[in-house]
Amino acid sequence: MSGDPNAYPPYAPPGGYPPQQQKSKLPWILGGTGGGLLVLGGIIVLLFMTLGGNGPEDAVARYEKLAQRQLTNPLDPPPTSEYDDLLCEEQRQAVRENLRGQTEQASQLSDRELSKLRRSTVTARNVEHDDSSGTFTMRISTPGEEPITQELDLVKEEGSWKVCFSS
Predict the structure, then answer these.
(1) What is the pTM of this model?
(2) Which of 46, 82, 125, 136 has the highest CB neighbour number within 10 Å of its CB?
(3) CATH of 53-165, one of 3.10.450.50, 3.90.550.10, 3.40.50.1820, 3.20.10.10
């Protein structure tokens, strides 16, 4: 080949190299969105499992856990704010007052009585409901005592299931 050695290399097509095609960003977008959706879905599932759902069974399970904490730890019961989204409107104030006095009353119990309370169990059973109301049975078992059973009501307020004490 004669001519200018700095001209096109021998393997270049006449007229030079064609413009480079840009690689599509679509796989990254779809992959990123799919991954983003996967992460978002995982967060939603985690929140649902952590915070619980909003069905009547979920409200009963959350109430059961709070009642267990309150009974087995009478010197440090759950804060009243934890009951706010769980109790029907007419019960909230009564529970607040009860919890305020609980620590003082519990401080007067003997070590033996406190030990019995700490070994107590709370179980909820027989959840029955329709679209707007229902009932369930709460059973409190304390070692050496007859179990206490109480039927509680469930009501739907502002789209959420709430626990109410039977009249």
Answers:
(1) 0.64
(2) 136
(3) 3.10.450.50
